[in-house]
Amino acid sequence: MNADMDWDDYRYFLAVERAGSVLGAARRLGVNHTTVLRRIAGLEKRLGVRLFERLRTGYTPTAAGEELREVAQRVEHALLSAEHRLAGQDLQLSGIVRVTTTDTLFRGLLLPRLPEFRRLHPRIQLQVIGTNQLANLTRREVDVAIRATNRPPDNMLGRKIGVARWAVYGARAYLDQRGDDLSFDQYDWIGLDETLAHLPEYPWLERHVPPERIVLRLNNLLHKIDLVKHGHGVALLLCFLAEPEPGLLRLTEPNPLFDTDIWLLSHPDLRQVARIRAFTEFIARCAAADPLLQGGLLKPRSRERD
Asked: Among 56, 82, 227, 246, which residue's CB has the most CB atoms within a 10 Å radius?
């Protein structure tokens, strides 16, 4: 084996291959793009082959690059498997637990419970990554994922801990002016933009609300709640976030079309790591004890509607 071999060079190579660009790889690795360029150039010089075609559309692996990708991925998998097995021997209630979740589940599930978890486990440090993208549990980018999905990954250890339900809400002041018994096309609506068109709310709104009544569109579910609270219109909101808000009234019953299971996911190799088990069991208990996360409601509907 070459004494000068550095596995980091191959990590940089895999990052560029997966991202399709130097800038994308740099963001994924948390380094400057010039560092990525230098690493790739050094690896190509040492191997004596060109690994990528530099195209306008991005970086595409050459034949040599494709061959290296297969080998590097096998080595990466072997190293990560060893890391998982070694991490599974950790029986101490201390260390770092890396958690990824969405902004809505952070606010509704994690945020209110963090003080209690810290009190119970002061030596465990949580690193929370707030993103709507599912971080890679297989490559140990995170240890635990809390996600709302009806299609959890098959290769992860997971349990369903709740359900997210949706209903139409409006601000009390807004409804005092407009009335709470109007048809949908008589309200101003706050909707989602095209970046969230994969959510079932998007086609539902297109079918049930005239486009001229949708006065605002955005790509953030928390901002949508804030806009409704400030009287900009009505919207489909997550019940576990909207129900506790005293200034919001619910205009409809939750629509089963939008029901989404809440899952707690981790890598199977980490099931015996004490600090991760302590966190997942704590969150599962908290979710089970919260009626809103089990599909319940706190207040009656504003008015019965046909």
From this structure: 227
